[in-house]
Amino acid sequence: MPYELPPLPYAYNALEPSIDELTMHLHHDRHFAGYVNNLNAAVEKHPDLFKMSIPDLLRNINTIPEDIRTAVRNQGGGAANHTLYFDIMGPNAGGEPTGQLADAINKTFGSFDQFKSQLSSTGAGVFGSGWAWLVVNSSGGLAIQSTPNQDSPLMQGVTPIVGLDVWEHSYYLKYYNVRADYIKAWWNVVNWNNVTRRYQAALKGEYLM
Ligand code: MN
Questions:
Q1: What is this structure's pTM?
Q2: How far is the CA of 78 from the centre of ligand 1 (A)?
Q3: What is the largest CA-CA distance in the chain?
Q4: What's the pLDDT tens digit per position in 104-132?
């Protein structure tokens, strides 16, 4: 069975004015769809691999047949990364997490504001295309990291729960070259309920698709 593009779980204009409707259409319907389609085209060459979930393809990237390994890394990474990205945004969002996740953030980074500042500067510091992440390691600890291109932290054995896409396609139509303004606005649309759901899953080693 080929992998499927998850529909956008809210209206395309739901993140206005932080993220504009046209960017959402292009980002979900063209970029995200392209990663899923290109992943399917690669895995068609070894169709037994369709039995594996996309996260498992990425966790086991070094065992993927060499002729499709780069495609799985880039297109499978793009599929997994954008599943998370669109899921952890939403209307009537922003603010801060509560409960166990809030406690873990405070313990790791000192405060929510320090976490926010570190993730923002990590995103701003990515040269070219890539991502800034909040990840959960195998001991349940939190860390901030970046990856280039569509590399997924799943390839490194950690589970991302917050993903900030800093590819120009995420922001260029509205924010032009001012990535920092996009990052500032992006915090207004983070859906902490869904991040918390991903945190609970990540503590059990699961990445929700
Ligand atoms: Mn993207």
A1: 0.98
A2: 7
A3: 48
A4: 999 999 999 999 999 999 999 999 999 99
